[in-house]
Amino acid sequence: MTTIATLDPYTAKAENTNLTPQEKINGLKEIIKETHTAMLTTRSADGEMHSRAMTPASPYSDTQLTLAFIANNVSHKFDEIQNDSHVNVSFYDTNTTNWASFSGKAKVTTDHETVKKYWSSSTAAWFGDLKDGVHKGDANDPRVAVIEVVPDEIRYWITTKSKIGRATSVPGELRTITKDEIQLTQGLHTK
To answer: Which stretches within the chain are classed as H helix?
Structure first.
């Protein structure tokens, strides 16, 4: 019988299912830390996919898997998220070929406490002061919103061999953080 493993032996060899959830999270955090920038992909009402580079806000715990982005709520991505909350966020490190892909749902909030939790002084540059006394480009600006991406599944590739070793065997590991593992870590943040 033909199986996926026989038709795609490279992927079958690369999958590592012997790690604890925290070990998987640690590997994922390294990729995010090294890449700094993600591509957030949304879908428009006519079905077109749109991606844009965004910098995730710093996580507030070592096990946080929800990504947060501060963004201008009058941009098109907010219309697209309202139309379809399913999104993908991807990271790629050109130096190592490590990558990560988050598939999940986006939630938008303008809650002041949430904005303050993720706000940094460098974020202000993306908004600018419109000099109207309301849109000051700070954490109180009504244009400021947080997009939280709650993942359903996270898959990532982490390189485990140098360039020399890549020619002879699988040069890394494909890891998956499952929905159950994600829900477990989210439970740690709701207490």
So the answer is: 4-7, 9-14, 21-35, 76-83, 112-118, 179-189
- From residue 103, how far is each of 41, 73, 85 by CA, in Å? 10, 22, 11
Residues sharing a CB contact under 8 Å with residue 105, sequence separation 6 or more, in sequence order: 85, 86, 87, 149, 150, 152
Structure pTM? 0.86
CB 188 within 8 A of CB 171: no
CA 101 to chain centre: 7
Partners of 119 in the beta sheet?
none
Contact 104, 150 (CB under 8 A): yes
Residues 16, 72: Cα–Cα separation, whole Å:
39
Please state, in angstroms and rounded to a whole number, the distance separating the CA atoms of residues 170 and 159: 9
CA distances from 9 to 13, 43, 78, 143 (A): 6, 33, 40, 49
Question: In this predicted model, what pLDDT tens digit does every residue of 29-85 receive, in sequence order?
Answer: 999 999 989 999 999 999 999 999 999 997 767 788 999 999 999 999 999 999 999
- Alpha-carbon dihedral sign for residues 101, 87, 58, 138: positive
Q: Please name the amino acid found at residue 50.
A: H
